[in-house]
């Protein structure tokens, strides 16, 4: 009886002790979350399938998987995207490398750390009554904003087709939707567009006069742009961002249903034919091992030097920062992605 009577107070004290421990643990969890996410801001610069890996990674919550709370915003146009990057509003930009390279050549610490697509996807589409390059003389042509990628490419495409930019009038029209609208209203005779708008323009009967994918040009069309000062201070966050973003590339290729649903949301188009055309186009173009190269930087530098001769003497190779992708490769990350999703 004495033993039995003595065990009840002991059991009670043990229960109280355990409850106290649990309460303390819960309190600590409230003060120190077990898996606090690092907050970062990123932007994408075009309503184009070339941005699909960023959208897929966001929709599949891959950034959370790697410990990041990502605020993703759309910033139209290269100059505005680079200004946001340099100003610190965003830490990672998914955009063409051209504007950031020009900023680098003018003294900014911008860098390209990943590039999954080095081929151009742009087209110059024109009014239905224009049937030849020669007929462009005297016409009004539209691009997004002054000094943007579309501005530089439009002028170079004309030059490669023996049309001087002085023989046409080039005006800023706005984003992809605004450029197509300008073509419809007759404000412009031709516009440089890309992505879904190329498919849409063809369906509306507009003619592609210059297919930029067939020109001898190479650029980082959908790279990840950063400031060196940021990635040097935050190498772990940079690697985790790239892991999520690159897994988005693998997921885009391996899960077409999920990819198509994501495209439908971000390009705001419900046409199955158009969505499938975009998916198939970028599935072939987007490389899952997006190592940036000096060759592509030199090609972009050539284009920039034609429009901005003052930057011609700057070595573009310093713009390339391949160490993060290389570190992922040496760590076996790509092997793991291949096992999980297939090559």
Structure description:
The structure is a single chain. It is built from 15 helices and ten strands. With 343 residues, it is α/β, with parallel strands linked by helices. It has two domains: 38-118 and 219-341, D-Maltodextrin-Binding Protein, domain 2; 122-214, Periplasmic binding protein-like II (D-Maltodextrin-Binding Protein, domain 2), CATH 3.40.190.10. The strands form two sheets. It has a five-stranded mixed sheet with strand order 2-1-3-10-4, sandwiched between helices. Strands 7-6-8-5-9 form a five-stranded mixed sheet, with helices on both faces. Strand 6, helix 6 (149-160) and strand 7 form a beta-alpha-beta unit. Helix 2 (52-59) crosses helix 10 (235-254), helix 2 (52-59) crosses helix 11 (256-267) and helix 11 packs across helix 12 (272-285). The protein is globular, with a radius of gyration of 26 Å. Mean pLDDT is 89; it is low at 1-34.
Q: Tell me the count of domains.
A: 2
Label the CATH architecture of the largest domain: 3-Layer(aba) Sandwich
Helix content: 40-55%
The CATH class of the largest domain, by name, is: Alpha Beta
Structural class of the helices, strands and pairings? alpha/beta
Instruction: Name the CATH homologous superfamily of the largest domain.
Output: Periplasmic binding protein-like II
Q: What is the helix/strand order?
A: HEHHEHEHEEEHEHEHEEHHHHHHH
The major β-sheet equals:
5 strands, mixed
Count of individual helical segments: 15
What is the count of β-strands?
10
Radius of gyration: 26 Å
- Fold-level CATH name of the largest domain: D-Maltodextrin-Binding Protein, domain 2
What is the distance, rounded to the nearest whole angstrom, between the alpha carbons of the first and last residues? 72 Å
Q: List low-confidence stretches.
A: 1-34
Q: Could you tell me the mean pLDDT?
A: 89
Strand content: 5-15%
The side-by-side strand order for the widest beta sheet comes to 2-1-3-10-4
* Gross geometry: globular
């Amino acid at each position: 009886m004495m033993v039995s009577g003595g065990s009840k107070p002991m059991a009670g004290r043990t229960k109280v002790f355990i409850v106290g421990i649990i309460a303390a643990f819960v309190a600590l969890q409230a003060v120190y979350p077990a898996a606090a996410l690092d907050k970062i801001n990123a932007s994408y610069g075009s309503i184009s399938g070339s941005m699909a890996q960023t959208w897929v990674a966001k929709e599949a919550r891959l950034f959370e998987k790697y410990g990041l709370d990502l605020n993703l915003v759309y910033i139209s146009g290269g100059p505005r995207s680079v200004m946001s990057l340099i100003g610190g509003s965003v830490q990672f930009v998914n955009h063409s490398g051209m504007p950031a390279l020009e900023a680098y050549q003018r003294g900014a610490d911008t860098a390209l750390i990943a590039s999954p697509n080095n081929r151009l996807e742009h087209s110059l589409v024109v009014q239905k009554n224009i049937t030849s390059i020669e007929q462009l003389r005297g016409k009004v042509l539209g691009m997004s904003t002054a000094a943007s990628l579309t501005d530089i490419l439009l002028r170079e495409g004309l030059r490669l087709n023996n049309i001087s930019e002085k023989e046409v009038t080039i005006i800023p029209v706005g984003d992809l939707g605004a450029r197509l609208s300008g073509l419809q209203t007759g404000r412009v005779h031709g516009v440089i567009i890309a992505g879904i708008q190329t498919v849409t323009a063809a369906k509306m009967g507009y003619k592609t006069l210059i297919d930029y994918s067939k020109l001898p040009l190479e650029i980082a069309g959908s790279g990840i742009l950063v400031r060196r000062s940021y990635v040097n201070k935050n190498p772990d966050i940079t690697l985790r961002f790239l892991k999520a973003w690159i897994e988005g590339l693998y997921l885009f290729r391996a899960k077409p249903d999920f990819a198509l649903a994501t495209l439908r949301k971000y390009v705001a188009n419900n046409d199955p034919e158009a969505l499938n055309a975009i998916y198939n186009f970028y599935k072939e173009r987007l490389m899952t091992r997006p190592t940036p190269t000096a060759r592509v930087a030199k090609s972009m530098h050539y284009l920039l030097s034609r429009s901005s001769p003052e930057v011609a003497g700057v070595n573009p190779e310093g713009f390339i920062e391949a160490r993060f992708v290389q570190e992922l490769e040496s760590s076996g990350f790509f092997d793991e992605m291949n096992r999980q999703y297939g090559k």
